[in-house]
Amino acid sequence: MPGNSLGERFRITTFGESHGKGVGVVIDGLPAGLPISEDDIYFELQFRRPGRFLVSGRRETDQPIILSGVFEGRTTGAPLTIYIENKDIMSQFYEEIRYKPRPGHADLPYILKYGFKNWDYRGGGRASARETAARVAAGAVAKKLLMLHNVLIAGYLKSLGPIEVKEPITIEEAICSRNSPTRAPRKDIEELYEKEILEVTKEGDSLGGVVEAFIANTPIGLGEPVFDKFKADLAKAMLSIPAAIGFEYGLGFYGAKLKGSEANDEIVYENNRYRWKYNKAGGILGGLTNGENVIFRVAFKPTSSIRKPQYTVDLRTNERTTISVIGRHDPAVVIRGVSVVEAMAAIVAVDHALRAGIIPSVRLSKDQADKIEENWERYKKLC
Ligand SMILES: Cc1cc2nc3c(=O)[nH]c(=O)nc-3n(C[C@H](O)[C@H](O)[C@H](O)COP(=O)(O)O)c2cc1C
User: Is the CB of 18 under 6 A from ligand 1?
Assistant: First the structure.
């Protein structure tokens, strides 16, 4: 099976290449009656958009067009297709890459698998993160549907290169990071991040970093034992993001250094419900959500396309050569990666909520649609 689709009940299929006519997504499995508009989808897309300070200079408006699946502002239950046109294409930057594959990018593996003549080298083709605009569009629909249970999903930039936020960040601060050009959770950190990026880009280099994200007000019991555990599906979704190199949740890799007595949490009974006192498991036990906030982190590598010359091979001669990548690249892909992480988390959460019957799979009632609209409006105004 090809790998362009994800999800069992909320099934997304993305299409499009970096320098083709556009990118988009087909979402199958949406219940009828969900109020959704192009403005709702754009609300999320604006936070991933290139052409802003400290991210790729590619000037894309990223205005989504709904091609199918909506009638009079509500989903019909038919596949919802969202299309985003590519407007600012400059393929001339990629002529050199055609014969000199970038050492940290997908160029050579794509050539070796699909053949040199079939490889769309312009802008990275299908391997380009332009495709993630389609994921964020689908994520907006997923986030809105999750408003039935007021589920909130937000990420922020926990570390950038050597700079790391050590103190705990609240979900509210993570949501408000959408207003920061570096997705920093606080102003003092934003200044440190900006300084670091400006210094590194001056040297023609790039930075990696870590996104921390939350799923709050998580319904209990998302996840299907044993292969479709919530942690397993979340990990797969996160590692499918271009440039993602690591995933952990709860105590993560640090937990492997602890003793059982230190890693275990304490179960308490408060306000008529069971709770885990310190949420060390990051909201997932036995592969099922336990009602605590899901907390996870995704590591991103430094952008591979850098101006600093690096060694590669010229495919015409097989001789060693250097490549200095010019073009409009993100100095740190992790910044725009935050929106993509949020979108993928929403896609996984809504898929499992449909599978568990927590969201109706056929049709939403008017009351449910009104509740979704009310919670969505509140979410949009949060910062
Ligand atoms: C939002 C986002 C933006 C990206 N922008 C760039 C970019 O400008 N230049 C680049 O070389 N890679 C960029 N990438 C990463 C590449 O798409 C990725 O490294 C490449 O497809 C190879 O895949 P891999 O790193 O997962 O192995 C970006 C990734 C994301 C998530």
Answer: no
